[in-house]
Specification:
- By secondary structure, this protein is an all-alpha fold.
- 73% of the residues lie in helices and 0% in strands.
- Helix 3 packs across helix 9, helix 4 runs parallel beside helix 7 and helix 4 runs antiparallel to helix 9.
């Protein structure tokens, strides 16, 4: 996608759907890309609402263990309150400071998570067996885990919007610094994910929570700080994925419904969007299962096989070449993820929903 951003001389594809329109045609490109990208960005924002609420709840319980317990739904509302303000920043450049803070926090809390796990040591009753007791349960859980993997690498959905903010000239195209940023970003992703995943499972086995900081209890000050860092991280991440949605909604209202572009339109549109993601997050606060469902349903297409299909359609690499083989491999993997992952995750969501009450 970085390479395709300026593949037409003199033109930049600043939005995912613009690239889709170039590859598939004006109307078909919109219908293929826009619905999936909307579900991706809305779904991620809902997941971040849930994560922020759960981390705030853990922070509260850690700092004040004797206080009266408060439902996660209330903490989701508290987390959403800051977005009613931050969402009115105009563009990606204006949230660069928030984004930098989010990246720094992700490194910090990930390091705290795995070092605190090492400090706690392998639990005496640790088990590494499957959590599901039946063959069907194990199969569905495996499907859901595939979706978690797809969700973990979600940055592709906003890569063109981010690259559009980088100055570009024929002598120094934007793909140069963008490639450096992408490589650096995935190094950071690896540093954050792999130690937490491997060490967390080693220490806690199958009893580890989908957010390992929920499992850890001591030292209290360190776990409280780590959960605060998570909150700061997801505040920035929420804005990164919400910004393309704000742009899409406001463009639709102005161009299609003939609204006058003004501050009041932006205020109402963005406030309603934040309120919507908050409300859905309160209804389904099942973070782990939601990741698997969204990862398979929409992240697999937009991350794995749609960009590959666009590449094949535009560049037409020679059959059986490395480019041809690599793209088709990703397409096949993406289709498998899209079919299997939502099935397993949906089953888990249904099981969890049976025991969930909103405010009681």
């Amino acid at each position: 996608m970085v390479e395709m951003h300026e593949m037409v001389p003199g033109k930049r594809f600043d939005r995912y759907h613009e690239l889709g329109q170039h590859a598939f045609g004006e109307k078909l490109g919109l219908w293929i890309v826009v619905p999936q990208q909307v579900i991706v960005e809305v779904g991620v924002n809902i997941a971040y609402m849930i994560t922020g609420g759960k981390s705030l709840r853990k922070l509260h319980n850690t700092v004040c263990p004797d206080c009266k317990p408060i439902r996660t739904t209330y903490f989701i509302m508290i987390f959403a309150s800051c977005h009613f303000v931050l969402s009115h920043l105009p563009n990606f450049n204006s949230i660069s400071g928030v984004s930098f803070a989010a990246a720094a926090m992700s490194l910090t809390y990930s390091t705290i998570a795995w070092t605190a796990s090492v400090h706690k040591g392998v639990q005496p009753d640790v088990q590494y067996s499957y959590t599901a007791s039946t063959t069907a349960g194990r199969v569905f859980t495996f499907f859901s885990a595939l979706g978690d993997v797809a969700f973990a690498y979600a940055g592709h959905n906003v890569v063109l919007e981010i690259q559009a903010t980088i100055p570009s000239t024929p002598e120094k195209p934007s793909k140069g610094p963008m490639w450096k940023g992408v490589v650096f970003a995935y190094i950071v992703v690896a540093i954050c994910y792999f130690p937490v995943a491997l060490i967390g499972y080693w220490m806690f086995g199958n009893s580890v929570a989908d957010n390992i900081l929920i499992t850890l209890e001591n030292p209290r000050w360190l776990i409280a700080a780590a959960n605060m860092f998570v909150v700061i991280h997801v505040i920035g991440s929420y804005q990164i994925y919400a910004m393309p949605m704000f742009d899409l909604l406001e463009t639709l209202l102005v161009k299609k419904l003939k609204f006058t572009p003004c501050f009041r339109l932006r205020l109402i549109t963005r406030t309603l969007y934040v309120a919507f993601t908050m409300f859905i997050g309160m209804l389904i606060p099942f973070f782990g299962s939601l990741l698997g469902f969204l990862g398979g349903l929409v992240f697999a297409p937009t991350t794995y096989f749609l960009p590959c299909i666009m590449w094949l359609a535009v560049y037409k690499p020679r059959r059986l070449s490395l480019s041809w083989f690599a793209n088709w491999m990703c397409i096949v993997m993406g289709i498998i993820l899209m079919i299997l992952a939502p099935i397993g995750a949906l089953r888990q969501i249904i099981l969890q929903a049976k025991t969930f009450k909103l405010f009681s």
